[in-house]
Design goal:
Order of helices and strands: HHHH
CATH class: Mainly Alpha
CATH topology: Four Helix Bundle (Hemerythrin (Met), subunit A)
Bound molecules: fe (ii) ion
Number of strands: 0
Structural class: mainly alpha
Largest sheet: none
Number of domains: 1
Distance between the termini: 32 Å
Helix content: 55-70%
Length: 147
């Protein structure tokens, strides 16, 4: 993290799970989280933050949906648990972002705390959930060409 507005999460190749489409989505999520929080250095109200927040939530829905389709096709045994985890994370993200939206005036501490939460949220998702899908695909020698 830094305070210069240049971005919050630095992508780390250790997070690559080896499925191209999913890795691209994760990079996009990093980008959207960064866009959300670099906007705080420019905004004159919450309009911009809200737009970025909505983009992040929409892309999260899109990404989880893709992952769920992939897990179904690959007959992943942990599908139900992953879906539960996804729903929980979607609620967490929506709750976190709602807190920002409800502020009447800029509260930099809240935004900073939120940055940390979303950052942990994303890394937890990749490391705890998606690496398991990747292991499943590797064990069964399933190659995902496109999604
Ligand atoms: Fe993911």
């Amino acid at each position: 993290m830094n305070g210069t507005g240049k971005g919050l999460v630095q992508w780390d190749d250790m997070w690559l799970i080896g499925v191209d489409a999913i890795d691209k989505d994760h990079k996009k999520l990093v980008e959207l989280i960064n866009a959300l929080f670099t906007s705080k250095y420019r905004y004159q109200g919450f309009k911009e933050i809200r737009e970025h927040a909505q983009r992040l939530l929409d892309y999260t829905d899109y990404h989880f949906d893709r992952e769920e389709q992939l897990m179904r096709k690959a007959k992943y045994s942990g599908l139900e648990d992953q879906i539960k985890e996804h729903r929980k994370m979607q609620q967490q993200a929506a709750y976190i972002i709602k807190n920002i939206e409800e502020q009447k005036k800029p509260d930099l501490k809240l935004v900073n705390d939120t940055e940390r939460l979303l950052c942990d949220w994303l890394i937890k998702h990749i490391v705890d959930c998606d690496t398991k899908i990747s292991e499943h695909l590797k064990e069964r020698k399933i190659i995902v060409i496109e999604m």
